[in-house]
Amino acid sequence: MDTKSRKDGTPSTTLHDRFGRKLNSLRISVTQKCNLKCFYCHREGEVSASHEMTKEEIAKIAEIACELGMKKVKLTGGEPLLRDDLPEIVSEIAECADEVSLTTNGVLLEKYAQTLFNAGLKRVNVSLPSLNPERFQKITEKDCVQQVRDGIKAAAQSHLHPVKINMVMMKGINVDEIPRAIDFAQDVGAILQLIEFQPIQPENYVCWKTFHCNPVPIENWLKEKALAVQENPLHKRKRYLLEKNGHPVYVEIVRPIHNSAFCQNCTRLRVTSDGKLKPCLLRNDNLVDIISLIRQGAKSNELKEAFKEAVMLREPYWREKNENPSQVLCKLSGTVRKN
Ligand code: SAM
After folding, report:
1. Pocket-forming residues, ligand 1, beta carbon under 6 Å
2. How far is ligand 1, taken at its centre, from the CA of residue 299, in Å?
3. CATH code of the domain covering residue 48
4. What Rg value do the Cα atoms of the chain yield, rounded?
5. Pocket-testing residue among 112, 195, 332, ligand 1, by greatest number of atoms within 8 A of Cβ
6. Does 331 fall in a domain?
7. pLDDT tens digits, residue range 38-57?
8. pTM, full prediction
9. Tens digit of pLDDT for each residue in 247-301?
10. Side-chain half-sphere of 285: how many Cα atoms within 13 Å?
């Protein structure tokens, strides 16, 4: 653990895990409810949840995380915009965090973008599995791609920059739409994030086997077209600068599976919607219950200890020598413990 002085003179702490990875971001699931039914969804690796956290509890967890150096906070779900108190949650967290961001399906974003920006939200990721209305409906069970497109535009106009469009790549479903998605991202001034499909929920393993698309050829195609390649420090994700008709557009690849560099450069801790610290998206056998401590009136120091315990439980999931994805599912159901 490093302790340094902040500009205002108060000490600030940075946590590192046993593998030397620095923790600087927190990803909080604020609900499990969702207004879409995307067949591929990993639901942030949550298998079930009891009661949702209140806004005060979320704010408390974020405050402790910020004191421990995790000053980038991302809100996720379920669909975070289904929470009426989301602007208040954002504004509470913005008091202590350097950056509050959101990942959303975008359906309600047009309505809330400006309010969220005013509350202190810095940027937004919007899921868009297809631009084609029929395909979008098949994937999500809702006919609302236009609402999502409007939400993306509203976010860009509300200065929630950069807007990132998240597209999970699926063979036979949407891979052929990548060039169109790049054009759309360019038109609206967004970054396109192409995400490898992960087999996280037990019920989507069969579907993963059918639709998983190898991202390497897509990455090679981007490499050939790119004017420049950058690297996002988080997960060492590659970001390709493309150009069309004199206008730039960035495409980032999120390629976690069997990618040890991805895990070596993971700097985030997660919080489930029912208040458990979650060291890894792919595991549910090492959660740390912080919400019970909060509900019992624990002091900040005790909450910090819970954070430190979760950080010490972190392990890179994908390493040089690794298991196959079906073992992920065994871990999720708690049948295998990793020691
Ligand atoms: N409802 C919000 C949304 O759609 O962004 C937040 C929840 S969603 C689980 C968060 C992110 O996970 C989205 O960017 C989505 O594209 C991504 N995602 C969902 N299922 C996935 C999967 N099986 N593999 C990879 N990414 C996935």
Report:
1. 34, 40-44, 76-77, 79, 103-105, 125, 127, 166, 168, 195, 197-198, 200
2. 34
3. 3.20.20.70
4. 19
5. 195
6. no
7. 999 999 999 877 799 999 99
8. 0.92
9. 999 999 999 999 999 999 999 999 999 999 999 999 999 999 999 999 999 999 9
10. 15
